[in-house]
Amino acid sequence: MFGGVSGRIQKDRQKAGGLGSVQQAVRYQNQDFQALKEDCLQNGTLFEDPMFPAEPASLGFKELGPFTAKTRGVEWKRPTELTQNPQFIVGGATRTDICQGALGDCWLLAAIGSLTLNERLLHRVVPQGQSFSHQYAGIFHFQFWQFGEWVNVVIDDRLPVKEGELLFVHSAEGSEFWSALLEKAYAKLNGSYEALSGGSTTEGFEDFTGGVAEMYELNELKKAKERDLYRIISKALERGSLLGCSIDITSAFDMEAVTFKKLVKGHAYSVTGLKQVERRGRTERLIRIRNPWGQVEWTGRWSDNCSEWSSIDAAEKDEMLCKMEDGEFWMSFSEFLHQFSRLEICNLTPDALSEDSTSFWNTTMFEGGWRRGSTAGGCRNHPNTFWINPQYKICLLEEDDDPDDDEAACSFLVALMQKDRRRYRRHGQDVHTIGFAIYEVRGQIVHMKKDFFLRHSSCARSETFINLREVSNRLRLPPGEYLIVPSTFEPSKEADFVLRVFTEKQSETKDGSARLGLLEFQVLWNKIRKWLGIFREFDLDKSGCMSSYEMRLALENGGFKLNNKLYQMLVARFADNEIIDFDNFTCCLVKLEAMFSTYSSEHVDESLIGCSSCSDLFYIYVICNM
């Protein structure tokens, strides 16, 4: 009986109850890991996943499609068929467990490698207690963040093998398989292995943590922004964010190349600390970097045995050097900006932080979609349709607590992410070019019309419209009310999206996309329960539907006494062959409530419409709004 509107309401209710959190992840494709495992153990069988079968289609569709050179001769084998003593994890997860295979997903492997540095985050993605010995049934599971919720992905352990070797990710250990199985689960989530080819490390960061990523091109950083970046890094470290930096490569020959001062090009370094020290009467800013991949360490200024250390307080020196882990080193902040090309920050949501974290972002998320002809208006270059895009209102209430900044402004991050675009690659589609604009609105309604955007300029916007899964920007605006308008670059491009807003201080939000807040949802849910009781009462034959004759009695019971003319209009709109199901019955009642409320509150000049009768005017209102 429940589908469509009522099904979505049921899903929203479950989400409000915790479904989709790390502790209560959504079962991907409705597969229950524990139930499937117990069934296999009882029957003495090994799990074979019908949702991601050991077939060519799971490998890919183009370069990894059936009968291509890369997939010719591929077999699917379980780890127990590849080695005598397979292990899930040996001695903890490390970067040596992650060796790239015949797939261009180094971006994913770099993200997995960074994940191994944080055991707490790793165990959210790779649940503990999995092995090839105790209660082995050929089934494993992993958890990923996907567009606002955590999902639990079940796989079997049949892996693609060519000439006796794993085709894709493998461990240097040879008998360790957690990374290969993790890659398979992520491939299943995205439709195939080939769908993982090409991407950004930040995409993996986000799917492994639920955080929001931002990227800074250090080569393009202007001098005036250096102080801002130092403050941003300081606050990110304070919040427990993941920070990575790297040096660009200009050709394949640059990969793994070591610079004059012993920095490795193409490697992902971690940023682990900041410190200001007094040296010879002036303050110098230092940054602590870690190379998790090897023993090569920085040999420039402030390296371990550098003379600079003798010119600062001895106790401070001992504290800074003694607390370092293997592979960590200090360098001056100005040299960091000169030596490295890119800084990536993954800001974590409160649920991902350790319990002793005292500083974190406040997060708000909206879900929406662009639909041709209704909500896909394109960017501001298309003024006739831009206004039909979804619109979301935020209220920035408190300015930042920054004693070094005299500007009264609120810092926040806006991140716009397209949903499921990797899955569409099989059908020749990819990510759209997307971005957003922000407008100041003082006490205005949520959904602004065309005239508003013709008369007002945006006060902030994404730095660019770009064809990436996510566009994110850090912004600062005075306290006030603002409207965020996400859009594709061109009109009529269809996609679903998630819009997330991370604020340093508390904020209020309002959604112009017809999605409900918690209180609104509770009110509607109580009405749905009441209407379900009415529906069941007048569904005399208990068929799950009612006739149009029964519908009239049910509407009267719901508080709507309608004349024949209006009732005929409702039957024509909501009944199918004089039969109405619960979804359409609910839609009818929602529409009636909304229109009666709006009609009674609006003051309309009847002479402009040419109708003198109030009932005729209401009929016109119904026709225009059904």
From TrEMBL:
The active site is at C106, H267, N291. This is Calpain 1, (mu/I) large subunit b. GO terms for biological process: proteolysis. Pfam families: Calpain_III, Peptidase_C2. GO terms for molecular function: calcium ion binding; calcium-dependent cysteine-type endopeptidase activity. Belongs to the peptidase C2 family. SUPFAM superfamilies: Calpain large subunit, middle domain (domain III), Cysteine proteinases, EF-hand. The lineage of its organism: Eukaryota, Metazoa, Chordata, Craniata, Vertebrata. Keywords: Calcium, Hydrolase, Metal-binding, Protease, Repeat, Thiol protease. Residues 46-349 form the Calpain catalytic domain. One of its GO terms (cellular component) is cytoplasm. Residues 526-561 form the EF-hand domain. It comes from Dicentrarchus labrax.
